[in-house]
Design brief:
With 296 residues, this protein is mainly alpha-helical. Helices cover 81% and strands 0% of the residues.
Length: 296
């Protein structure tokens, strides 16, 4: 999705002359390092779940889905850096057919990562809601079969949507659809939170008797959501400004921070696994067993 993802590189020089703000450039080594760390960290999460049967539950499968989404986002940047290196070394023809095809594939990977991340967070929010307010019926509502169907639908829809968005990336409607998913997820989770708050007030005694792990899970989701908003909002705002006011001096000035916004976006994949580890004793134990070869 060159007109969306590579907006910084494709902005024309005329538009930049409207602003006195210089482009803020970051070394490629920073992006490459963050990407490597993001891939390795998020790879550990599904490996830990696969290796430990006590973690093979719907909640952790949803977390695995989120970890894989983050891993794909980091992998996208690694492949992009490798492609740039090969092009600079003269192994690839600039704007050639191979580079164009590779760009499209990587752009699909990027959009797939974002969409699957949004839907995974939404499913985790719904799972936490059911855990807290329908604890007795949880295992009959959130079955392994429904979990598998939900994850299959999420990844199939994200894949098809990613391909479609890359194909129709020149259309403004595509940009609006791409950026609207971000606030829609926030509205959905906010509605769940408001409902949870209202129920908590009307059933204060009942809520106080719930297992602390249930409420801790809701707090973990809150932290994940807060980090996601902090890391992704600047990039989504960049896409909107690039689409609707590319020549406005204030918009152009903000767009000069494209690489900084991109770094923030990538940091989300690095931060999420730390949140899992710090908030989940089960995952912490699984990580320790993996790192210490079951000697811990």
């Amino acid at each position: 999705m060159k007109h969306i993802i590579n907006a910084y590189e494709h902005s024309n020089d005329t538009a930049r002359n409207y602003s006195d703000c210089p482009d803020v450039l970051l070394p490629d080594e920073i992006f490459f390092t963050i990407s490597i760390i993001g891939v390795l960290e998020n790879l550990i999460v599904p490996l830990a779940v696969i290796k430990n049967k006590n973690l093979q539950s719907p909640m952790y499968f949803f977390i695995c889905s989120l970890a894989i989404s983050d891993m794909l986002g980091s992998l996208y940047k690694i492949l992009e850096n490798i492609l740039i290196i090969f092009r600079n070394m003269g192994y690839l023809k600039p704007r050639g057919s191979f580079e164009s095809t590779a760009d499209d594939i990587m752009d699909c990977m990027f959009v797939l990562s974002l969409l699957s991340s949004i839907f995974s967070r939404s499913v985790i929010a719904a799972d936490r809601y059911i855990t807290i307010f329908h604890a007795l019926q949880y295992h009959s509502i959130v079955t392994m079969r429904r979990t598998a169907i939900t994850l299959t639908v999420i990844w199939m829809f994200s894949t098809v949507s990613g391909i479609a968005m890359v194909i129709f990336s020149h259309h403004i409607l595509t940009v609006l659809t791409f950026t609207s998913l971000f606030p829609l997820m926030l509205v959905f989770i906010l509605c769940l939170y408001i409902h949870m708050f209202l129920l908590a007030r009307s059933h204060a005694r009942k809520i106080s008797t719930l297992p602390r792990t249930n409420m801790k899970g809701a707090m973990t989701l809150t932290i994940l959501l807060g980090v996601f908003i902090f890391c992704w909002t600047p990039f989504v705002l960049h896409v909107l400004l690039m689409t609707f006011c590319p020549n406005n001096p204030y918009c152009v000035c903000y767009m000069s921070l494209f690489q900084v916004n991109g770094m923030l976006m990538m940091c989300n994949a690095v931060i999420d696994p730390f949140i899992y580890a710090f908030r989940s004793p089960e995952l912490r134990d699984a990580f320790k067993k993996m790192f210490f070869c079951n000697k811990y």
